Predict the 3D structure of the following.
Amino acid sequence: MIEISSENFVLVGAVLLFVAVMAGKVAYRFGAPSLLLFLGVGMLFSGLGFISFNSFEMTQFIGMIALCIILFTGGMETKYSQIRPVVAPGVVLATVGVLLTALIVALFIWLIAPIWGRHLAFPVAMLMASTMASTDSASVFSILRTKKQGLQQNLRPLLELESGSNDPVAYMLTILLTGMVTQGESTSIPGALVMFLVQMVVGVICGYLIGRAAVWVINRMKFSNKALYPVLLLAFAFFSFAFTSLLRGNGYLAVYLSGLVVGNMRLDNKHEMVNFFDGFQSLWQIVMFLTLGLLVNPKELLQPDLLIMGSLVALFMIFVARPAAVFLSMAPFRKFTTKARLYISWVGLRGAVPIIFATYPMLAGAPEHQARLLFNIVFLVTIISLLVQGTTVSGMANLLGLAYEERESPFKVNLHDSITSVLSEVEVNRSMLLKGETLKEISLPDNTLVMMVCRDGDYFVPQGKTRLLLGDKLLLISDRHEELQSAYRDLGVEFDIKQ
């Protein structure tokens, strides 16, 4: 057995990262969630006795760092225009949906636990349910963004908004109930509501202001070494979480909103910073899931009573609790079809966040048998959720008729951040060629140029006399993109705004 120490930490870490990355490649080829494989690699090294790791404090710290980076990056890559139509249902799912899930699952756990001789008080059952009541941002962002598949009815931004903003409710419930179970603390319902509102309001205000401050500072700093810009933005991401938590707000909500503000404002060197955070996020996702895998004891998970109980809780959550919470909380939003609500129910993925929340009772001094039971049940639910739901995200969308193939742009172009012109891509159709087949004969708004043509995988710069063919992809740059969009909508032309 290898003990984690300063002498072999780098070697062990390198081996784990290498194996995890190779496992992720295999997972992608077979359509399995790579995060599940990362978790499995950690469990394998722990179960075979290669590595001894049982630090809940270190796991909680790694999880906090990783979630800050994952949420900030997720916010940066989310556009206001995408989430604006789904803000209301997203917020309701992130609050009411989490509360309903926790209550329904808690009642189920409280009723079935005595079958295996585990008589749990309702607050303990509620604590267990609360830790896994929120969907996991790492899992949802990772799986939805690696699938080259579009979703109708704005489902992808809705699911990403929910997963990025629903941790505060689960976190608040976990902290309150941990205090009740470990120290006998009781909080009235009005007191809990006040605490929740304070956390949310402070989180929203701090997240927005710190995001604006980050943009203001970065746009005025002039570094000769451009590698320092991502480092400065990373400092703002961590500051957003830590400062908000210091003010008794919810740091996870603040860091997500800070990323959302940064990603939707003009920012110098944004392209380089987005690339940096993409890679850094991938690294910390691997580290987090590996650490969680190392922490678990596979022998405990395989105990028959624990295995059966955990499986029943997972299946109940997938097929009963999550759908019930979704349908009840989304009842006011009639624009979503039944199929859309079923799909939202199905993408209620559990992942790292529930496992990290499950470490709180252990560190707070809860009775060890209860804390270990809670941790192991949550771990089993996470594995089953990733196995059952994570592997069928695309299949379920196809089955419900909600999927469409996302067009992959043939043009990979990035304008400098100071350029206000907009790039767009259009596909030539018959209506565009009614007045003639050459470039000079098609109608374009003023201040709009065709920069490049892609035809059957070949690229060339066109001239006015260039003859266009059906299916050609045109890359345009325009200062009047609204006029361009209006003109091509009238012609029934497919277009895609790139910047």
In short: The beta strands are 2-3, 51-52, 149-151, 403-405, 422-427, 448-455, 458-460, 473-478, 495-497. The radius of gyration is 25 Å. The mean pLDDT is 83.
